[in-house]
Amino acid sequence: MAERPDLQTFETSLGGRVYQIPLEAFPGFWAFAYLVLFEDYRVLVDAGSGYGNSNEHLEAGLREAGNRDCGQALNFADLTHILITHGHIDHFGGLAYVRPRTQAQLGVHELDRRNLTNYEERRTVAARHLARFLAEAGVSAERQDGLLALYTFTKGLFHSVSVDITYGNSGMHLGPFEFLHVPGHSAGHVVIRFHDILFSGDHVLEGISPHQAPESLTLSTGLGHYLDSLDSLETWAGDIRLTLGGHRAPIGDLPARLEAIRAIHQDRLKQVLETLATPHTIAEISRRLFGEVHGYNVLLALEEAGAHVEYLDQRGLLSIENLEELEHHNGPVALRYRTIEAPEAK
């Protein structure tokens, strides 16, 4: 998508107004922030990446939304709150630019708080965990260096910011906004219910299954947590009429979308089990699942494959074929997994 999409307007059953602001988070990769206006609340949901034109697009969106709503441009100083759905940089990276320009109260879930307040430490620790994962996944040393460089490329643009509100300590609500913790895609991911509209961040997206990474990289992520969170959301969502994600088109039928995402993961788990009838590394599984990919998609495919292998391994369905090599090696070893044959029924 080369051109910036149009700003869209939605209204809740109780008269709340929602403006969907398109942002080019990274070249050719679009995300959405949302301006919510209701009574005395002027709330920004997510803040873009801060990369390239993202901040410019955010400012322009606020001006346009204000002109549409009340005939007067809005800016960051007019905001009362900024609510972050989760601690991934394409959703909070713009805060480094926004925070000095507003007195708005900034909120995030406790388990993603450190991504904002202790960012430099978190970036360093996460990169070390990723390096070990890539080695154990069977990625060559040369390719590991390239993938780690891709991972850290944009992350040096952000610096730590202070947080005013954590959702758990606030009782999982703020005025007309209600929060549900949905770990999986990130440790502290929340969805936000505003009347009959749901802001889903990256937990539920139209047309794709949101990215999964192994829990070995970050606690409270991983496919098991994610699938449990889909179930929790379906029970909690109630009479949600419209779901607005951090990317892609709005979702009108949330239960159907949840079921479609579950089916995608069940199919991938089945593919992994069938492939692991003979030993494979995660890198090999990744190529089986996603074929030949390039750039940052290589890392995403590896993490997605790793999340599915980890899910099966945690449930006792896999074994490490080269365990003896692992026992006698001090550093990381490329692990080769194999399906454990179920015992025959008696």
Please give a structural write-up.
- The protein is of the alpha/beta class.
- It folds into 2 domains: 8-130 and 152-264, Metallo-beta-lactamase, Chain A, CATH 3.60.15.10; 267-339, Arc Repressor Mutant, subunit A (Orthogonal Bundle).
- It has 11 helices and 14 strands.
- The chain has helices at 54-70, 89-92, 95-98, 110-117, 119-136, 141-153, 223-236, 254-275, 282-290, 296-314, 323-327, and strands spanning 8-11, 17-26, 29-38, 41-45, 81-83, 105-108, 165-166, 173-174, 177-181, 190-194, 197-201, 242-245, 318-320, 337-339.
Count of distinct strands: 14
Spatial order of strands in the largest sheet: 1-2-3-4-5-6-7
Shape: globular
Strand content: 15-25%
* Uncertain runs: none
The CATH topology assignment of the largest domain is Metallo-beta-lactamase, Chain A
Number of domains: 2
Characterize this entry briefly.
The chain is an alpha/beta fold and 346 residues long. The chain has helices at residues 54-70, 89-92, 95-98, 110-117, 119-136, 141-153, 223-236, 254-275, 282-290, 296-314, 323-327; strands spanning 8-11, 17-26, 29-38, 41-45, 81-83, 105-108, 165-166, 173-174, 177-181, 190-194, 197-201, 242-245, 318-320, 337-339.
